[in-house]
Amino acid sequence: MSAIDRYWREGFPHVEGWVHGGLLAYLKLVDQIQADAGIAGHGAEIGVFHGKFFIALASLLPPDGKMTALDVFDDQSKNIDGAGEGSLEKIKSNVAAYGRCDIDHVYIATDSTALTALDRVNLVRDRGPFRLFSVDGCHTVEHTLSDLRTAEDCLSSGGVIILDDFMHPHWPGVTQAASLFCAGVPRVAPFLYAHHKLFMVGVGWHAHFVDACRNTLAHHDSMKMTTMFHSKVVSIYP
């Protein structure tokens, strides 16, 4: 049994958070596409709450991989929209109980919008580059746009950004931020949408990822090819 399958069965149900169980198949698909293409890198997440998705991403890394959490944690004065009140003690407890012991987990207490260009360079140098980067911090337009730019700057070649709550009616700022981000002609483009997660990859890899997802999911009852921000996207809904 793979590490992520074991976590999904033994740990996932016990970790508090808002992650759809159906995402397992799409995380494994993205991981397989990267593995087949020889894409390397580490993992990171902005906005980790109690670690439900953080531990899942870490389970996809090779032994001695680096998994980095960036969050305000207990300094909730900076959590301006209340998008999940995190706890450093709680996430460390969950990682100890359900995470892998052969992964280097680091927890950086920070307001992600305050990261400078030098901070991003140091993050990549010390902890990256990243092949899996989840954006799930404050869901305001300003925060999400800033976090998408941070993720883009820190990706490895073939690395994937996973944006949470895209097109979620309770968090319209995320969708607005994605629109503004993509209007700026970024170096990444969306290729997969499932369970309110929007997956993006570098434009040079986009066709490869779209084709791989379309071929794998061709017989999925809820799959539809669509266009988002001028890019072909494999969309799964609901």
Q: What is the name of the CATH superfamily?
A: Vaccinia Virus protein VP39
> How many extended strands?
9
Largest sheet: 9 strands, mixed
CATH architecture classification name: 3-Layer(aba) Sandwich
What is the SS-derived class?
alpha/beta
Specify the overall morphology.
globular
- What's the helix count? 8
Overall radius of gyration: 16 Å
- The arrangement of helices and strands along the chain is HHEHEHEHEHEHEEHEE
Helix fraction bin: 25-40%
The proportion of strand residues reads: 15-25%
The spatial strand order of the largest sheet comes to 3-2-1-4-5-7-6-9-8
Q: In whole angstroms, how far apart are the ends?
A: 28 Å
The name CATH uses for the topology is Rossmann fold
CATH class: Alpha Beta
Query: Which stretches of 5+ consecutive residues score pLDDT under 50?
Result: none
On the 0 to 100 scale, the average pLDDT is 96
Count of discrete structural domains: 1
Organism: Neoroseomonas terrae
Pfam families: Methyltransf_24
InterPro entries: SAM-dependent_MTases_sf
GO molecular function: methyltransferase activity
Give an overview in words.
This protein has 238 residues and is α/β, with parallel strands linked by helices. It has a single domain, classed as 3-Layer(aba) Sandwich (Rossmann fold). The chain is 37% helix and 24% strand. It contains 8 helices and 9 strands. It has a 9-stranded mixed β-sheet, with helices on both faces. Helix 4 links the parallel strand 2 and strand 3. Helix 6 crosses helix 7. The longest helix is centred in the N-terminal third of the chain and has 15 residues. The chain is globular. The model has no long low-confidence stretch (mean pLDDT 96).
